[in-house]
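Appendix B. Chain record.
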Amino acid sequence: HGTKQFVKLSTTDDFYVRAREAVYGIASVLVTGALLLFFFRRKVEGVVEITLKQWNTSFGTGFVILIVVPVVCFMLIFSLVGMPLALLTMALYGSLLYVSWVMAILVFGVMAMNWLKQKYSSLWVPFLVGLIVSTIIFISPAIGSSLRFIFVLGVFIPTIGSMFTWYKKALTNV
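Structure tokens predicted for this chain:
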């Protein structure tokens, strides 16, 4: 009495959990991507261009942002004045990471279309290609985690850096 028993989900249940999460993820990314492409098309084009042309510096900038922002916020949260700033910064940081993930899917689609030497007239095509291919790859139980890690290193982190670079450039040109 008082012991709890845990029931291991079968691999079939695990597949359905992954599939359900993929459907929610696709819907979320699709809506966010649609808003970005509809309202901020030029900004999106700029970020994609920077990511593809300045990958090394974008990776370095993105890596620094990925590490430094949470560390600084952690230090700020222990002061009375810094706590609201840290909380606001972490909320913005979370939003940045999510939008960067959506943008990284688009960049991945552009890279795939360029690799296949396919032309496209709208960023919608590479966005949908990136969304479909990344979802299929990430849902795979055998290699999904490894390929997601490669995606994070090769596309997501540089996209974070590119977004920062684009906004910094836009603010200095005002």
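Further analysis of this model is presented in Appendix C.
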